[in-house]
Design a protein that fits this description.
It is built from two helices and four strands; from the N terminus they run αββαββ. It has helices at 3-7, 29-34; strands spanning 14-18, 21-22, 41-48, 51-58. A four-stranded antiparallel beta sheet has the order 2-1-3-4.
Amino acid sequence: GGTADKAGIKAGDIITKINGKAIDTENVVSDIVSQGKTGQQLELTIWRMGQELTVKAVLSAASNP
C-alpha cells in the first residue's frame, strides 16, 4: 500500500536509477527519496528478471507507526 507498491515495484526489483541518476555508493535510494517533497513524482529505472523497466512513483508523506 506504500509508494513503491503503488508504483508497481515488486519484491526482488532492483532500483538502478532515480530521475536518471544512477544509484551507487554515493547516491543511495533513501538519501534521494528523503530529499524529495510530498507529491513529487520520481521516475525509477528498475531491473526485474533480466529486464530494465521504468516506472513512476509519487512521494507520499511518511506515516509514523
